Amino acid sequence: MEISGSVNSIIALSTQLSQQRTSETAGLMVLKKAMSLQEAGAMALIASVMPMPSAANLPPHLGQNVNTTA
Which of 2, 32, 35, 37 has the least C-beta neighbours within 10 A? Predict the structure, then answer.
């Protein structure tokens, strides 16, 4: 009877480890997808602040100062 209990314990432990591995794999996949989305967002942001090619004929000092009046 004790061998049967040991086998059941081993099976339960194996099942638990398998479920944990599956959970960790799923978590890692979600993390990779989130990082990929953040990368795409960051690249879009960088592209949005890059100078436009049509701005090549503008003076280099343009946009360095803000004129305000009070």
Answer: 2
